[in-house]
Each structure stands twice: as structure tokens, then as C-alpha cells.
Specification:
alpha/beta, eight-stranded parallel sheet, 28% strand, globular
Length: 391
């Protein structure tokens, strides 16, 4: 099949309006030109290369807003070859767009990350597309560092973000911080003014802290239930505030390790308004096996897909999850419909990043970021901007 111009027929197309049975998608110059019944394909598309998708699902490509690396490479220490390795591996698992996610690091290190990622994005990106940068830290709580290095934690600093935004307009798409810390409200206001997701994470915030931050623009939360004050019936904490506030969207690591499936069911039952996002939080070990790895500048041990800090046994340190595995977990273990899981993996991240006019769903006029999966939800094929990914 040629790249950029083709049609898939007889498939089950997962769209924002539901599944189209015996459906067809046509793509020309990397853009979706028709979505509908196979019988209704426009006559002018008759000459396109054809793939019979009978018995399979056609999904929008996955968008991962929280991913640190893979294949021994880490976005906190980026190079062109390293970013190629990360984006290639995740593309092979269904990710078509992703955010280069950093760790809590010194400012000079983050300066270098932003410069390298910005440079990478100026050229044609051959694999999963970088949509920008997610800064996870360094403005987090020293009480909830998780697998972040406490030595590099600093209070929220709006001036740093202002400087980076001026130097690299639009590059930063999400910033994770502890909203209870002094200076956070000024930071939130600036982020939202620039269209950047303001995300609570690694936080000791009370319920009242989160609600106060939401009032000035806090709109997102990272890896729900992990590294935050938990839900208690008299002290709802960060978790309770997020669960009860539709205006704050929530990420979930759906691997059966970070969060019990019952807690994910609870989250999904309240996050029903385009505000549930599947993420991987994948680290440099993603795509590989057991062994010793690094997450930022901290050593990590991986055993049976469980990543923990080497010097703090039991502290989870990212994951080796891929988006297709997380998608399957949401459907097969949590019990979400394929449509809901697709929304969490594609449509909702696109909305958060304000990219939903370009990608995130199968609609005419959008770029052809498409996946073909079988009835067992095993990934068969990937197209990125109409270009078939070659594994």
C-alpha cells in the first residue's frame, strides 16, 4: 500500500459519534477525505489503494501527553538519535503524537531539553510526532517527590516559564506543579493565558488548595491517585477534589500496577465529559526487559514491568506501559467501551492540547493518524499523517 493515499474498507470505524459498522476511511495527501459506509465511498476515490479491514477496528492514533522515554533513551537527556529511538518505539505501539516529558531537573538542564526538542520539531519527524513539551516539575512538593530528585525541587517560578515561552513560543504544552506552594496561582494564570495545561501533580494539596487553584485556572491533573494526597471521607484531599470537579481533567496509568482497576472504574464513572486521559508515564526501560535503568538522574530497577527506585525500594518510578496495552486494559479489565477507551487515548488528549481540530478523531479534514486493531485489540497497522509506519 502506498503512503498518503489509500482507503480502508469494511472495518468498524470508531468515531466521536459512535462505531460505523462496515465503514470506510479514505485518505489523500495524508488527510482524511471520507468517513462513512463502504457502500458510500465517493466515485473519485475508486482508484486508491485498498486495504480490507473486515472484522477489525479502525481507531484514531493515540496521543500520549505524559511519557519520559523508551529504548534506553530519556527526554531529560535528549539528542536527535535518542528522540528518534523513543518516538519510533512508541509509534510501533500505536502512539502517533506525544509530549516530550521532562523530570525535575536543574534549570540549565531544562534549558537544554527545550532547545533540543524545539530543534527536533523544526524538521520532518519520521515517527510519532512531538506535539511539544510537558514539564513535570521542578515546581513540585518535597513531600511527594515520587521518583523525582528532591535536590532539584524549587518553588513555582513564573519567570522561568515566561522566559521559555518567549524563547520557544508554543513549545510548552503542559506544566505539572504543586498548586499549594507559594507562587502557584501566578503561574496558573500565566499558563492558562498562554493556553498551556496547568496540571496538579506530586502535590501535598488539601481539597481547599485544589479548589482555590481551580478557581484561577487549574485544569488538569497528572497520574491520578499517584503522588498526591489521597481521598478520605473527612479530608477529601487532592484526589477527592479532582474526582468531584469536572473542570479538572485526570490522567490515568492503566497498567494494573499503579492503580487498582476498581479505582480506575471509579475515576471513569465521574470523568465523563472529555476529561479522562490515558497515559503511560513510560520511562527509558519501555520497549525493553528486566534490568537496571535511569529515570532522569535516578537509578531504577525494572522487574516484571514494575519500575521502582533502586535506592528507595517500593517507590514506583514511571512504567514500561505502552498506549496499546493501556487501551486494552481499559477495555478488557476496567470494562470501558471501545469508544470510551478511544476517547481517553485520543480525543481527550487532543482537546487538552488544543489539537482536536487537527487530530484525535476520525473525521474528514483531519490528518490521517490511524490505527488498525483486531477483535482482540492487538495492533495491526499504524499510519501517521497518512504515512504507514514500518516496524
Amino acid at each position: 500500500m502506498s503512503n498518503y493515499n489509500f482507503q480502508m474498507v469494511n472495518g468498524k470505524i470508531v468515531t466521536p459519534k459512535g462505531i460505523i459498522e462496515d465503514g470506510a476511511v479514505t485518505v489523500e495527501d495524508g488527510v482524511i477525505t471520507y468517513v462513512g459506509s463502504t457502500a458510500g465511498i465517493p466515485q473519485e476515490a475508486a482508484g486508491l489503494d485498498t486495504l480490507d479491514a473486515a472484522g477489525k477496528y479502525i481507531l484514531p492514533g493515540f496521543i500520549n501527553v505524559h511519557v519520559h522515554g523508551g529504548m534506553l533513551e530519556d527526554f531529560s537527556k535528549p539528542s536527535k538519535a535518542g528522540i528518534d529511538a523513543i518516538t519510533k518505539m512508541h509509534a510501533s505501539q500505536g502512539t502517533t503524537t506525544m509530549l516530550a516529558t521532562t523530570m525535575t531537573m536543574p534549570k540549565q538542564v531544562l534549558d537544554g531539553v527545550l532547545s533540543e526538542v524545539n530543534s527536533y520539531m523544526q524538521d520532518d519527524m519520521p515517527y510519532a510526532q512531538l506535539g511539544g513539551v510537558h514539564l513535570e516539575g521542578p515546581f513540585i512538593s518535597p513531600k511527594w517527590p515520587g521518583a523525582q530528585n528532591p535536590a532539584h525541587i524549587v518553588p513555582p517560578n513564573k519567570e522561568w516559564i515566561e522566559q521559555w515561552e518567549e524563547q520557544y513560543p508554543g513549545l510548552i504544552k503542559q506544566v505539572t506543579f504543586a498548586p499549594e506552594r507559594e507562587g502557584s496561582h501566578e503561574l496558573i494564570r500565566f499558563l492558562r493565558k498562554k493556553g498551556i495545561a496547568a496540571a496538579a501533580g506530586h502535590t501535598d494539596a488539601t481539597y481547599e488548595d485544589i479548589m482555590s487553584a481551580q478557581a484561577v485556572g487549574l485544569n488538569h491533573s497528572v497520574h491520578m491517585f499517584n503522588a498526591m494526597t489521597p481521598l478520605h471521607h473527612r479530608k477529601p484531599g487532592t484526589a477527592g477534589a479532582i474526582l468531584s470537579t469536572p473542570a479538572i481533567s485526570a490522567e490515568i496509568i492503566a497498567d494494573g500496577i499503579h492503580v487498582h482497576k476498581a479505582a480506575i472504574k471509579l475515576l471513569a464513572s465521574v470523568k465523563t465529559d472529555h476529561n479522562l486521559l490515558l497515559i503511560t508515564d513510560a520511562m527509558s526501560a519501555a520497549g525493553l526487559g528486566n534490568g537496571d535503568y535511569m529515570l532522569g538522574d535516578l537509578p531504577v530497577v525494572v522487574k516484571d514491568n514494575v519500575c521502582t527506585l533502586k535506592e528507595s525500594e517500593g517507590t514506583l518510578a514511571g512504567s514500561t506501559l505502552t498506549m496499546i496495552r493501556g487501551f486494552r486494559y481499559l477495555v478488557q479489565e476496567v470494562g470501558l467501551s471501545i469508544e470510551r477507551a478511544s476517547e481517553a487515548a485520543s480525543g481527550n488528549p487532543a482537546k487538552l492540547l488544543r489539537m482536536d481540530h487537527v487530530t484525535g478523531s476520525i473525521e474528514t479534514g483531519k490528518q490521517a493518524d490511524l490505527l488498525l486493531v483486531d477483535n482482540d485489540l492487538e495492533l495491526q497497522e499504524v499510519w501517521i499523517k497518512g504515512r504507514q509506519f514500518q516496524k
